[in-house]
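Readers outside the structure-tokenisation community will struggle with the description of the input data as it stands. I therefore recommend that a typical entry be quoted early in the introduction. An entry of this sort, consisting of the sequence and the corresponding backbone structure tokens, reads as follows:
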Amino acid sequence: MDRIHATPTEGMSYSPGEPQYFNRGMLDGELERVFDICHGCRLCFNLCPSFPALFKFVDGHEGDVRRLTQPETDRVIDTCYQCKLCYIKCPYTPDDGHPFQLDFPRLMQRAKAVRVRKTGLALRERLLGMPDFLGKLASLAPRLANWANRWAPNRLLLEKFLGIHRRKILPDFHGETFQAWFEKNRARYGLNGDNGKVFFFPTCFVNYNNPEVGKAAIEVFSRNDLTVHCDYRQCCGMPALDGGDVEQASKLARRNVQQMLPYVRKGYRVLAVNPTCSMMMRKEYPKLLDSDEAQELADAVMDPNEYLDQLRRDGRLDTNFRSTPGKIAYHVPCHLRAQNIGYRSRDMMRAIGGETKIEIVTECCGHDGTWAMKTEYFELSLQSGQKAFAAMTADDEALMVTDCPLAAIQFEQATGKAPLHPLQVLARAYEPDGFPTQVVKDGDG
């Protein structure tokens, strides 16, 4: 039997615009090649459930990846929740310039897309890939929507017919979206300063589910005399891409590029408050759209604290902080680490000074997009996050903080405590009245 070569096959593709991307035979050749490399390397043995499953299955076939059954291959694909940590750890990636050109997360993403093209998009994946539709609908009657999301009989129906686990904490909806609040309040914040120009992308989650994070961002931007434009129109497209709906993800990406690029060309930086969304725009848009315009936008995207830390290092940040959060357990989201920008949120919170002391938690919490919501992966997601949960709760007095709003839900699910966003920490530090105790919800965990 011919051995499997580690160098790319002619079917290697990480961009949907390439003709070989949706070719099933070419995909299978790449799966064999990459699985064989990963099985021999095993550097990612302690990351997501994909790798233990892969190693177990291949070992069961005496090391021959070509003998994997389709259900075994599907298990490896479906337990990859796109945290990107394996790409950070892998020495064989395109970013490293290695001849293997190995990108395990994008290959798993491609495999889902090929499957969806053949079998169609399941109802659950279709709905979870449409956060704007769900947000707009729920915002018409948010109390009813939130009650339904907590009512046990309804949760049983969601589990039976949609595959959303009955115990999964679902985010609240608000009658007033962040964009609506911004339109009403922009004048009183005087967002026409001369210290920098930013296009603020609040993301679908902040717009519909957690507007308080967006409000904190505006407080901080206003303190630092920035010109701020915000005009939320559509999701970044990651939920659709995560479900294998490449066509919908590309459509949303194209619309965002068309909307934001004119501002980029006027000198604005695009600040996406959710690490998943900033990673999507930076890393995935150029692959999805394969255009100079997508790359031009990608080059202008930043995390808000990355931008603020740049102001700090340039001596242009308002450092008149009036209270301190004390001890902080800060979770660095996987998708922020994947952008290779350093720990800028940590650096910004350190700048508060006083009694501020930060312990960093880098383990994955296991939520990862919509993966933790699904009936078949809910328990596994909590198992995957055990190290992160333990580290975040090691000190009962520490304030729990994370940049990722979905990670915040996962921590609340596991610990009963709802973490703050670093921008909320900064906004409160500008005020003299300190930091309230974190909210603990009865019955959660």
Notes: Residues 50 and 76 are 5 Å apart (CA to CA).
